[in-house]
């Protein structure tokens, strides 16, 4: 496999660096011939589709939207900036791939190039057996530095405002129970802010920032439940990994979690920015081991719908469609 490394910044305001990446793409497309070009993520999708539309018009362009930045109840700035761009770039897109129902329905209203099609895939592919273990939770808790008899809640996600860990920390600070521990795996710009909040609320012995981890499959089985409080998610693969580990979920209500979350069956849905909603959910799961077991079994069963095999089956259909489209376009 031949690779070409271009640095594409996530932020649309990083004009100089993204301009350099565009010029690199231009040179590559002028030098090489590609039948299919598949773009991912907002800025990769913008630069890739613009470059391919200008310098490789015969190529079939696929774009996977890992969660549009415009969605129901999104800030008006998101709609003002991102919606017109995606709508315009749809005219350069032959196949649009989405990962949740809301994005699929919105994308289906775009006018794609050459009578293009919109697809929805079941996540990005999960090894459902990787995250399940029969080893005792107590041993795993001890290795993480938590009391073996504690009720251990786990979150996995970047430390930023969107992931909303702050609301959960505030919820824990309002609870009288002192045997509840909370571990957050991830790194990001909000780490110092969260550390200060944890210290301020007197939770340093019960709430730990575990950093970026490559052993999530070893940590998930230590948890009694998985908490996913994001304000916005295109899908949220971390939560599906927790389901594969047989954990009940506590999640916010957003378009991504609606793909797999079933309130009262796989876990409990909370109001995004309401600590009291999380307090109620945590207490319910903590005080009822049988509900945890039942929800955990249902979660594990439902996680199979998002397996790598399920995603691969759909992607094969998509690439077959793209290949057929390429043949038809280049025969004209």
From TrEMBL:
InterPro entries: Glyco_trans_1 (IPR001296), Glyco_trans_4-like_N (IPR028098). Residues 13-106 form the Glycosyltransferase subfamily 4-like N-terminal domain. Residues 137-302 form the Glycosyl transferase family domain. One of its GO terms (molecular function) is glycosyltransferase activity. SUPFAM superfamilies: UDP-Glycosyltransferase/glycogen phosphorylase. Transmembrane segments: none annotated. It comes from the Bacteria. It holds the Pfam family Glycos_transf_1. This is Glycosyltransferase family 4 protein.
């Amino acid at each position: 496999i031949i690779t070409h490394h271009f640095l594409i910044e996530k932020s649309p305001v990083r004009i100089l660096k993204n301009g350099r990446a565009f010029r690199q793409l231009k040179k590559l497309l002028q030098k090489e011939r590609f039948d299919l070009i598949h773009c991912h993520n907002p800025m990769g999708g913008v630069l890739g589709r613009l470059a391919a539309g200008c310098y490789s018009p015969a190529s079939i362009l696929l774009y996977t939207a890992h969660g549009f930045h415009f969605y129901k109840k999104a800030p008006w700035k998101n709609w003002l900036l991102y919606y017109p761009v995606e709508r315009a770039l749809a005219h350069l897109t032959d196949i649009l791939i989405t990962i949740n129902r809301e994005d699929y329905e919105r994308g289906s209203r775009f006018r794609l190039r050459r009578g293009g099609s919109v697809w929805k895939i079941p996540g990005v592919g999960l090894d459902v057996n990787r995250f399940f273990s029969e080893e005792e939770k107590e041993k795993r808790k001890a290795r993480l530095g938590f009391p073996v008899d504690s009720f251990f809640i786990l979150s996995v996600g970047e430390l930023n405002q969107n992931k909303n860990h702050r609301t959960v920390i505030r919820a824990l600070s309002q609870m009288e129970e002192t045997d509840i521990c909370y571990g957050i795996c991830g790194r990001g710009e909000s780490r110092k802010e969260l550390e200060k909040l944890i210290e301020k609320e007197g939770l340093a012995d019960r709430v730990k920032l575990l950093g970026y981890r490559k052993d999530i499959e070893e940590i998930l089985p230590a948890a009694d439940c998985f908490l996913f409080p994001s304000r916005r998610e295109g899908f949220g693969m971390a939560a599906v990994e927790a389901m594969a580990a047989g954990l009940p979920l506590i999640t916010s209500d957003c378009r991504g979690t609606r793909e797999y979350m079933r309130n009262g069956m796989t876990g409990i849905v909370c109001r995004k920015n309401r600590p009291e909603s999380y307090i109620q959910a945590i207490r319910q799961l903590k005080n009822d081991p049988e509900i945890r077991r039942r929800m955990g079994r249902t979660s594990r069963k439902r996680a199979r719908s998002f397996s790598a095999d399920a995603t691969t089956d759909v992607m094969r259909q998509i690439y077959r469609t793209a290949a057929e489209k390429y043949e038809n376009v280049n025969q004209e």
